[in-house]
Amino acid sequence: IARNGHEPEFIQAVQEVAETVIPYIAKHEIYNGKNILLRMVEPERLVSFRVAWVDDDGEIHVNRGYRIQMNSAIGPYKGGLRFHPTVNASILKFLAFEQVFKNSLTTLPMGGGKGGSDFDPKGKSDDEVMRFCHAFMLELNRHIGPNTDVPAGDIGVGAREIGFLFGMYKKIRNEFTGVLTGKGLSWGGSKIRPEATGYGTVYFAQSMLKTKNESFDGKTVVISGSGNVAQYAAEKAILLGAKVVTLSDSSGYIYDKDGLNDEKLAFVMDLKNNRRGRISEYADKYASAEFFAGETPWNVKCDIALPCATQNELDQQDAKNLLKNGCICVAEGANMPCNADAVHEFNNAKILFAPGKASNAGGVATSGLEMSQNSLRISWTREEVDERLKDIMEDIHDSCIEFGKEEDGFCNYVKGANIAGFVKVADAMLAQGVI
Ligand code: NDP
Fold first, then answer.
1. Per-residue pLDDT reduced to its tens digit, 293-309
2. What is the pLDDT of residue 2?
3. Centroid of ligand 1 to alpha carbon of 308 (angstroms)
4. Which domain holds residue 229?
5. How many angstroms separate the Cα of 306 from the Cα of each of 120, 233, 406?
6. Among 187, 212, 241, which residue terminates a domain?
7. Rounded mean pLDDT of 28-37?
8. Which family does the record assign (predicted)?
9. Is 350 one of the catalytic residues?
10. Nearest CA to ligand 1 atom 33
11. DSSP states along 128-191
């Protein structure tokens, strides 16, 4: 805290891990006295750089770019790039720290990193986004590589941005390699990668529900966000027989009393991915829906909640409202969407609660599969990738149960994910010595 006290999100993420990992370290001789956690919270490297670019009117803008290379004990740094005006070192360090544990949980050999910029793609033309991405890669290229650090997308960085970033990397380095994941299918991307985080979140929730002999079938589901993760979480939940009644963006949420269906979801995908519009337009189009400006959907009655927008979007009062309304399962599609008090509410009530580092790990896991396919120069089918994704989500669920099951039979998935993620990285760090 003395060193990072000015970074609230980072402190929040570390505290959540420390609460469960420190008691575990105390009980296990091999980790005692090695200051492992102290080493894990200091990034191996943090790069911050100027990104200067020219808008369509010829005006020059300056943004700040970052790459946090957090931990490479078990593999090359891996983690997304976020373009959003709120991006700063604290947010990226929290995301990079979470990523170390998440990547460890996937069972694949990937270290943890994160990066991005305070650039806001909203309202920018395609040409402006291209010029920004090219300028960003002019510096980033010297810090990454297929065996060093492999970035991917996150908030504000989707297929369009990955394309521009990859194009500039290829031009500068004169090599076609798997240096980024989330690529287009015709130039090295993996099938199911766009779907993976949302699908994986639902697969994880499905595994949790199974422990209570429950399923998605016939359940009412509340989802926040309407970006990549939210769209595919909704698609899979609907496919499994659930009624998805909400989506949101930073301007508010829509409630559809009839639930979304394939046609409505296709409208949302076109609205958000192609037209880059606001979710309120959904309520203009469908009479069964209402738009609630400036609000979050946590007061809506549901069985299952999937927060898929951003960090700290669900607080203690929201958690109380969900519990009061009979919610039995919460799986985080976003990173740290529930604040610490909300998580405590869920765990005290002993409902099924999955932290993002476990439930949203399907995205990076499929990125890991994209890296394997790039190295082998092959392309697996949709079914093959989906099968591997399902297996990985089940393995992560098993690990959480192994380390998180308590004496009364309740599974604390937060504890399970933190300890399972920690053990693999800590063992590798011990084996590699003090470096
Ligand atoms: P997108 O940019 O595709 O979508 C983000 C969504 O969240 C949009 O609906 C956006 O609304 C909303 N949102 C963003 N910031 C805020 C805010 N401050 N308040 C309210 N709503 C907000 O991003 P993704 O779907 O990729 O990412 C969503 C979350 O999932 C993030 O936490 C990300 O770190 C996490 N994640 C993503 C993975 C992936 O594979 N994409 C992998 C693992 C985790 P608006 O359009 O108004 O900004």
1. 999 999 999 999 999 99
2. 80
3. 7
4. 194-359
5. 25, 8, 24
6. 187
7. 93
8. Belongs to the Glu/Leu/Phe/Val dehydrogenases family.
9. no
10. 334
11. HHHHHHHHHHHHHGGG-BTTTEEEE-BTTB-HHHHHHHHHHHHHHH------SSS--GGGTPPT
Of ligand 1's listed atoms, the one at least distance from the Cα of 311 is: 32
Express each pLDDT in 400-421 by its tens digit.
999 999 999 999 999 999 999 9
177 CB near ligand 1 (under 6 Å): no
Query: Confidence band (pLDDT; 50, 70, 90) for 392?
Result: very high
- Distance (Å) from CA 155 to ligand 1 centroid: 5
One domain for residues 222 and 320: yes
Q: Is the same domain home to 247 and 265? A: yes
pLDDT digits (tens, 9 = 90+) for 78-121: 999 999 999 999 999 999 999 999 999 999 999 999 999 999 99
CA distance 416 to 358: 9
Any atom of ligand 1 within 6 Å of the Cβ of 154 = yes
- Do residues 174 and 309 share a domain? no
The percentage of residues in the chain with a pLDDT greater than 90, rounded to a whole number, is 98
Asked if residue 1 has pLDDT above 80, the reply is no
- 184 CA to middle of ligand 1, Å? 20
Domain shared by 220 and 342, yes or no: yes
115 lines ligand 1 (CB under 6 A): no
* Closest C-alpha to ligand 1, atom 20: 250
Q: Give one DSSP letter per residue of 223-258, joined into a string.
A: EE--SHHHHHHHHHHHHTT-EEEEEEETTEEEEETT
| Catalytic residue (choose from 114, 183, 357, 415) | 114
Rounded to two decimals, the ipTM of the complex is: 0.98
Same domain, 230 and 168: no
Report CA(293)–ligand 1 centroid distance (Å). Answer: 18
Query: Which of 202, 229, 247, 268 gets mutated to test ligand 1 (max ligand atoms within 8 A of its CB)?
Result: 229
pLDDT at 3: 85
Euclidean distance between CA atoms 72 and 429, whole angstroms: 9
